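Example S7 (structure tokens).
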């Protein structure tokens, strides 16, 4: 065991909600750049939910961006929301670490029976028990710490 997944005292956490060029269990492959338009047009309006349930908002996304690896997400659980408080404890205990995107397909093609997603209209990212993309996870301690530090450096350098 490597230690708990970092969730700071304010409920902040980070990870990848989607990883580029990887096949998910639904037969989709998200391509680099697929989120670009949506991240711009929906800035501040992409929701943080639990299990894709619109009745279960649990926080907000402080940062969403594409990088060479995928869709990086840094969020914050809202203290005092019972589900958010429970999620914070579950993430700390390594009992829950999945992330999953809720979207509408804008542009896609097919290749070898799989759907290639060229453009996605992203409307929410959820903390989930079973992500369709195995690599879509709240980051492990070392990578999450590095991702949060990089995001902090990026904000300071603006």
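Recovered sequence:
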């Amino acid at each position: 065991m490597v230690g708990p997944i970092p969730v700071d005292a304010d409920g902040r956490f980070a990870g990848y909600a989607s990883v580029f060029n990887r096949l998910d269990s639904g037969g989709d492959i998200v391509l680099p750049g697929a989120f670009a338009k949506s991240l711009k047009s929906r800035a501040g309006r992409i929701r943080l939910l639990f299990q894709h349930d619109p009745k279960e908002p649990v926080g907000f996304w402080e940062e969403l961006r594409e990088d060479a690896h995928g869709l990086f997400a840094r969020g914050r659980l809202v203290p005092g929301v019972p589900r958010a408080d429970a999620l914070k404890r579950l993430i700390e205990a390594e009992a829950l670490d999945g992330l999953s995107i809720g979207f509408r397909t804008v542009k896609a093609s097919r290749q070898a029976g799989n759907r290639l997603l060229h453009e996605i209209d992203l409307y929410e990212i959820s903390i989930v028990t079973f992500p369709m993309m195995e690599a879509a996870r709240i980051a492990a301690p070392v990578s999450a710490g590095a991702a949060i530090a990089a995001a902090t450096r990026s904000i300071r350098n603006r």
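Notes on this example. Residues 79 and 98 are 20 Å apart (CA to CA).
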